[in-house]
Amino acid sequence: MFIETETTPNPASLKFLPGQEVMGQGTREFATPEAAEASPLAQTIFDTGEVVNVFFGGDFVTVTAAPGVNWTDLKPQVLAILLDHFVAQAPLFVPGSAGGIAVPPEEDGMLVEERDEDADIIAQINELLETRVRPAVAGDGGDIQYRGYRDGVVHLQMQGACSGCPSSTATLKHGIEGLLKHYVPEVVEVRAA
């Protein structure tokens, strides 16, 4: 098995491509070692002691090194962990029952209270995010999460390599904001969540 690596716009993050599916659908971000306990793979990567974020995409894993960590030393460790995991066909997540899962109320996911009369605008925004923005952001080792729309302002949260990227503000303001304003005239601003 050969695992490719790609740089990302975030110099602290590397994107690892195992050549097979990582997440069947959706994405998952682990921003702390405690959160990584849900995944043996993420937990093992955090156990290196040199990682601050692990992100699972459809066919990639993005790892963000802690400040001051040299990728020359960390990369072989992460490659070995990924290789062991995928060759063994180990489960991505710890098996368990739904009893241990807490689902936050829907309003916790949104930053603003949306109005019913904005439903068409919100649908247009989400369609553009799915078809145009998410594929581009995934190419850089990250993801984007919709967090609400109200009074012309779209709230988005960057994940994976994109969450700590020095150019994420430019991506939001010049790239995504410009795209949304072009196709959805009601959008006047995009803000980071």
From TrEMBL:
- Endpoints of the signal sequence: none
Highest taxon of the source? Answer: Bacteria
The UniProt record lists the Scaffold protein Nfu/NifU N-terminal domain at: 3-89
Q: Member of which family?
A: Belongs to the NifU family.
Output this protein's name: NifU family protein
